[in-house]
Prior knowledge:
7-stranded parallel beta sheet, alpha/beta, 9 strands, Rossmann fold
Amino acid sequence: MAERARSVAVTGALGNLGWKLLCHLAEHSASTRLIGLDNRKASPAQEAELRRLPGERPVDIDLVECDLADGQDRRWRDAIDQVEAVVHFAYRSPFPNDTWDDANLSFDMTLNAAQAAADSPAADRFVFATSNHVMGRYKDLPLAKDLGPGDLHPELTPGVGTRWHTGTEDADASIYATHKWAGERLCRALGQRAAAQTTFACIRIGWCQPSENLPTTLSGTGSHFHAQSTAAASETDRWFKEMWLSNRDFCQLFQRATEADSDTWPDGSILVHGMSNNANMKWNIDATRGYLGYQPQDDVYAG
């Protein structure tokens, strides 16, 4: 798929995923305009790093401090009115143990950004970073029964909220997953309404850790750990490991989501899974490949 020169706004730009994508687009894409939106102010070092990455290629870059939860904040609204694609990562809490207050605020941000993209005179693509936790109940019985490799398709009925044990306590991502599921429904509705102008891609991201994001630092506790034998991993460990999304696959996937043609998309929107090419994983990424031209390079078991 040929790269298209694009102007892109990334919300949650200073977070783990937002910063990875923004730096990738600055260094490796044909983007001519990049706007990072975050409720924090970028440091001078961050600004210098981002502006260095394009090298000699002319790219107009801005990092904008704003409040995406405030529907009247012109700083982020003006940014969305200037770009062709919006990638939405922003949320209240970086962990899946949200409170309802966290989830409400996160959904407010999603609602504001998605509606603004649909109404923007420039934006023709909105990419929503949803979550594997929307399908988390498929980790366990009864939904896990007879679920083999590649059987977990995005069109299956959601199983909202992963439950697991962190090693010290029980964890439940149901509240976090609920606001992500609601965001998926919102994007589908807006896609049907605004398909002639703005199309919507929802990507259920697997597990993309901060920093180097190596397979050897994955565990079923949801935290980093030192290398562990895959053969000794529990079923919970295996569930989390097999949704791994490497850094380079993540960057490729989201760049393609901003650039892919939408001629074959149903009703102005798609819902796909975002994992690397992990052997024998239950997650199905056929639609991701087909709709976005995604070609994952990595496998959590490849060593």
